[in-house]
Write a structure and sequence with these properties.
Length: about 675
């Protein structure tokens, strides 16, 4: 029997009693595992896996022993899987953070007429950050409640309180998530401003007074001048943080030999956040190019060194209007990034820029430039880091597409879940591109429980495969109503698995716990975790997440395996924004082709719904959609030239929409090399 919640605790952030994460029964997890994998394996592979699973789950066998250890662990821990999950998902991963792990939020394109405009925007943004930090410090942030499936439950708020108080410290084999919760050390009262690959300490509290927006602008102007007037070449130390984690850990140990470097590292690691003042990238400003710039900064020749990737929040303000947030993902999930970003943009709209010299701090001390001692060894490591980032920039195949044919309102009219519908559309797109189903990751929040993070919704269901085969092979099924029934079955299966995941009864975290329990007991790795099926199950060729917003912005991230796709989507009432990524080095993948198949699939699914549910004539609807798609593409291409003729508004150019319930919460699945 699964172990459900008897205990509860007062979440320090919400004040509401939250239950412990349940532990599914061994038999339920093993049965679900076989159901999830059968259609993704050859008959020979599945027969072998079936025997291995049967042996693992036999009475008195290894599986029961490991399950008993998890039962004991659950009694002792607030969340039995949290430490296992954090290490497996992030801290053990040796891949570089940009593209591979760190998601980004891309803000609306800003129209800065002069350099001072971008500094005004940055000062306004920092003012919003400090307001949000005040809410966090007072524990005054409203409690989140579950929306979508099984709505109304209070959610764990712990992740929010790591936004400005944590840091990912690189290690040779495993990173450490450092939380600044010491009562001995003073609270950080500075941010780090990156400008022209240099780092400056901007104190936001001076003489016990928080700087107002006018003072912040004054300090940013000083930083901009100091960065431009630096006589000596400045080593782009931020590049070191863009390398693989083991390489960065080695470089950091070399840096630490010099006291000057130790002091600079300490100031960066203890800051509230980074604000990166970027030079113009020189690229045409489209959604796709801005997404790529957020993900990697354009590489070492552009703004790739104007970053410090270990810090959870880096706010990017580009002189060319390319703005957004880069997020180090280990402390919190995407929903926290979304909520913080939306607060800031709404603050900047609702709170007009306050650049009057009222109650300012007189004689502001100049911001301090961080200094570095760069030995030949460090210079060599910088060169290596630059080469790796350059390769990553060239490798990324990014495509951001606004599908304007319809949005979630049409899907709701079919009495279907928008998230489940889009997940089935992604399965159809991949099948059309590659002719097979593959292991798919979609995150599901487990924040209904103490220290809850996420588990995996396995969207590549047998029901989804039956539907996509029927849609792509006319010989199988020709009757529309049969296809419609298969679509409803696929959506129902997706919804059922979603409920399993958000209630703590999915299989991925449980299997991870069993594997890690065996490792802690120093057992030989059980056969089930050496089996091809387990490796295939964790090779997430499709890494997906829904990141809905109420403000005009979108999220994106890179693929998590070399031959995979990252597919992030933002469903709105009448359109859906898709951010699709892959790697050029993979001969199997192509983001443009995937998006083309995705658009075709969404149109075909709409036609099917209209034919079966008495909607508009599909042929006429398709013609209208194609016209809308072409208009959208034309508007996107012409946006840069049009923007140049617009007058500069006082506030950031942001469209605020009414809030809509989200079905699941955002998450990027990051696979370690051992899972490839």
């Amino acid at each position: 029997m699964p172990i459900r919640n008897q205990e509860s605790f007062k979440d320090s952030a919400s004040g509401d009693a939250l239950p412990k994460l349940p532990l599914p029964s061994l038999s339920e997890t093993l049965d679900t595992y076989l159901r999830c994998m059968k259609h993704l394996l050859t008959e020979e592979q599945f027969n072998k896996t079936q025997n291995i699973v049967k042996q693992f789950g036999a009475p008195g066998g290894v599986g029961e022993l490991l399950q008993s250890k998890l039962v004991e662990r659950r009694e002792k821990k607030a969340n039995w899987v949290y430490d296992y999950w954090l290490s497996d998902m992030y801290l053990n991963n040796r891949l570089a953070l940009p593209v591979n792990s760190s998601p980004v939020m891309v803000f609306p394109q800003q129209n800065f007429k002069a350099p001072i405009d971008s500094l005004r925007f940055a000062a306004h943004l920092i003012s919003g950050v400090l307001e949000y930090k005040t809410l966090l410090d007072a524990r005054a942030l409203p409690v989140d409640y579950a929306r979508g499936q099984l709505s109304g439950k209070p959610l764990c708020m712990e992740q929010y309180y790591r936004l400005f108080t944590s840091y990912r410290l690189p290690g040779p084999d495993r990173d450490t998530l450092v939380a600044q919760e010491s009562s001995v050390m003073p609270e950080p009262e500075h941010i780090i401003v990156a400008c022209k690959n240099q780092f400056f300490v901007l104190d936001v509290v001076i003489n016990f007074r928080r700087l107002n927006e006018r003072d912040l602008l004054t300090q940013l102007e000083k930083i901009s001048k100091m960065a431009a007037n630096e006589d000596e070449p400045v080593p782009p130390m931020g590049l070191l943080t863009s390398n693989g984690r083991t390489e960065w850990a080695e470089a950091r140990s070399v840096l630490m030999r010099e006291s000057t470097n130790r002091d600079s590292l300490d100031m960066i690691e203890r800051c509230l956040c980074l604000v990166c003042l970027d030079d113009p990238s020189g690229s045409e400003q489209s959604d796709t190019t801005r997404a790529a710039m957020m993900l990697h900064g354009g590489g070492p020749s552009k703004n790739g060194g104007n970053r410090w990737y270990d810090k959870p929040m880096q706010f990017i303000v580009g002189a060319d209007g390319c703005c957004g947030v880069v997020c180090e993902h280990s402390p919190f999930e995407g929903i926290v990034l979304v909520q913080c970003s939306e607060y800031l943009l709404k603050y900047m709209i609702g709170s007009p820029s306050k650049l009057v010299r009222a109650a300012s701090v007189s004689e502001l001390p100049a911001p301090r430039r961080l200094r570095w001692k760069c030995s030949p060894e460090i210079q060599k490591l910088l060169t290596s880091s630059a080469d790796e980032l350059h390769r990553l920039v060239k490798n990324l195949d990014m495509n951001v597409h606004k599908f304007s044919g319809y949005g979630k309102e049409f899907i709701k009219m079919q009495k279907m879940s928008p998230d489940a519908y889009i997940q089935v559309a992604l399965q159809l797109a991949y099948y059309r591109c590659h002719g097979r189903a593959v292991s798919t990751y979609e995150s599901a929040s487990t924040r209904r429980f103490q220290q809850g993070r996420v588990d995996n919704i396995r969207s590549a269901t047998p029901e989804a495969l039956a539907f996509v085969r029927a849609m792509t092979d006319r010989k199988l099924i020709s009757r529309e109503m049969e296809k419609m029934e298969l679509l409803r079955c696929a959506i129902n299966a997706q919804t059922k698995y979603t409920v399993m995941a958000i209630t703590g009864m999915a299989i991925d975290n449980h299997l991870l716990g069993l594997r890690e329990a065996a490792r802690e007991m120093k057992m030989e790795k059980p056969e089930i975790f050496k089996d091809d099926a387990y490796l295939i199950s964790n090779h997430f060729i499709l890494s997906t997440s829904q990141v809905p917003t109420t403000v005009e912005m979108f999220c994106c991230y890179g693929p998590v395996v070399p031959d995979g796709y990252g597919a992030c989507y933002n469903p709105q009432s009448d359109h859906i924004i898709f951010s699709v990524s892959s790697f050029h080095e993979s001969p199997q993948t192509c983001s443009v082709k995937f998006v083309k198949c995705l658009v075709q699939g969404l149109q075909d699914m709409m036609d099917l719904c209209n034919r079966c549910n008495g909607g508009p004539d599909p042929a006429e609807q398709r013609r209208n959609n194609q016209t809308t798609e072409k208009q959208t593409q034309t508007e996107t291409k012409g946006k840069t030239s049009q923007d140049s003729t617009k007058s500069q508004p006082t506030n950031p150019q942001v469209l605020v929409k009414s809030p809509e319930p989200s079905f699941t919460e955002a998450k990027t699945r990051t696979s370690a090399k051992g899972k490839f």
